[in-house]
Amino acid sequence: MKLKSNKKQQQVVSKKRLINGNNLVIKRILVPIDFSEHSKNALQFAISFARQFNAEIILVYVVEPTIYPADFSFGQVAVPSIENELRERGKVELNQLVETQIAETLPARTIVRRGKPFLEIIKTASEEDVDLIIIATHGHTGVEHLLFGSTAEKVVRKAPCPVLVVRPVESAENNEEKI
Q1: Model's pTM, two decimal places?
Q2: How far apart are CA 138 and CA 38, in angstroms?
């Protein structure tokens, strides 16, 4: 059985992202930030894309719930004061990144969320009607990757829009050793 594709449906779906079938339109770029050098490198890619497309940059920082095992009779205990401190510190750091990296050259906003990073990144992308996510990968391999997985990988699989994954910048010496 052969399914017919409806050209009108395809045009309606693609109108948001494409004009005349040739020109890509990017209005909002989401950049998840964890304040590592890798995520700051991804921000540099986002700035370049935003300049090309005159797009808004949305920086998102996700505070993971802090849970400590207290004792077997009480189970796990959340520590909201630490989360609040991380949230406030995240806001300050995001604002500093905007001031130092983006300044007034591009429209930019910051968002701080609480939860599992990949879920919150995906939710933010949907809620903010983002056209592109630019995310860093930390390059975890082996057992570490098996145990924790990759936030970037999960975002790529579930995101409502295209995702650009930026690998860590390696020195020329490291690249030669791997060859």
Answers
A1: 0.76
A2: 7
